[in-house]
């Protein structure tokens, strides 16, 4: 049986969960804390990161690896185009969202969401510039017509739906300005559109339920 391990509060967990739901794959969910020292978890995800999958053949970690495995194992409905170049463009967008937007914005989360001390003026300026540059670069690649990669829901949307809100909220908290909106990326309308999908509603409902218990 396929089991997704992690937490419904995690954006990368929800990236994978949304893909599984979109494909109608039967799977179980099991809670696992990030950076766990549990040996069983470390055997499946050696850095203690979530999410990870356990399958009949063994375990897999890293969210994009999980999406690629899911796509190869359950190709329909597709979350990547059949054309190799178009598929690569979706992967390109997903990489930008995960690594050049969310991971950079993650440096703000401690002070923005968890009560950590404010960043130094120099660090804040450095992160703001990096995000502004990366968002401008992403905007050159993204279609948002209406989906991130064009007219079809893809892996890039699994990433964007779960990462855009964090980038927006963190930059608003840190800088007094949502840098996505400031760059002309109307992700609020995009989130509303994706949020009408039953799969996205399931992800959001489960996240909110988990947050209420935290």
The share of residues in helices is 55-70%
Low-confidence stretches: none
CATH class of the largest domain: Mainly Alpha
Q: What is the alpha-carbon Rg in Å?
A: 17 Å
The CA-CA distance between the termini, in Å, is 28 Å
Main beta sheet, described? 4 strands, mixed
Number of domains: 2
Strand arrangement across the biggest beta sheet: 2-1-3-4
Number of helices, counting only DSSP H or I runs of 4 residues or more = 10
Indicate the CATH topology of the largest domain.
Glutathione S-transferase Yfyf (Class Pi), Chain A, domain 2
What proportion strand?
5-15%
Mean pLDDT reading: 98
**Order of helix and strand elements from N to C terminus:** EHEHEEHHHHHHHH
DSSP summary, beta strand count: 4
Approximate shape: globular
Q: From the helix content, strand content and strand pairing, which structural class follows? A: alpha+beta
What does this structure look like?
- The model has no long low-confidence stretch (mean pLDDT 98).
- The protein has two domains: 3-73, Glutaredoxin; 84-213, Up-down Bundle (Glutathione S-transferase Yfyf (Class Pi), Chain A, domain 2), CATH 1.20.1050.
- The chain is α+β, with helices and mostly antiparallel strands and 214 residues long.
- The longest helix has 22 residues, at 84-105.
- It has ten helices and four strands, in the order E-H-E-H-E-E-H-H-H-H-H-H-H-H.
- Helix 1 links the parallel strand 1 (3-6) and strand 2.
- The chain is 59% helix and 7% strand.
């Amino acid at each position: 049986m396929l089991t997704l391990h992690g937490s419904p509060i995690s954006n990368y967990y929800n990236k994978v969960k949304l893909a599984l739901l979109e494909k109608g794959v039967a799977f179980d969910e099991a809670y696992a804390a990030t950076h766990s020292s549990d040996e069983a978890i470390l055997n499946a995800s050696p850095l203690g990161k979530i999410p990870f999958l356990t399958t009949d053949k063994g375990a897999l970690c890293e969210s994009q690896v999980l999406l690629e495995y899911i796509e190869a194992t359950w190709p329909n409905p597709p979350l990547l185009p059949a054309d190799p170049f178009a598929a690569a463009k979706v992967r390109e967008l997903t990489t930008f969202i995960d690594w050049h937007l969310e991971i950079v914005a993650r440096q703000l989360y401690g002070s923005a969401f968890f009560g950590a001390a404010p960043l130094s003026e120099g660090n804040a300026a450095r992160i703001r510039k990096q995000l502004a540059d990366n968002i401008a670069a992403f905007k050159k690649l993204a279609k948002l017509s209406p989906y991130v990669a064009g007219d079809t829901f893809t892996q890039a949307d699994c990433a964007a739906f779960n990462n855009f809100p964090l980038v927006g909220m963190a930059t608003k908290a840190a800088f007094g300005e949502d840098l996505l909106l400031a760059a002309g990326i109307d992700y609020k309308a995009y989130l509303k559109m994706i949020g009408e999908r039953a799969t996205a509603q399931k992800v959001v409902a489960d996240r909110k339920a988990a947050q209420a218990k935290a």
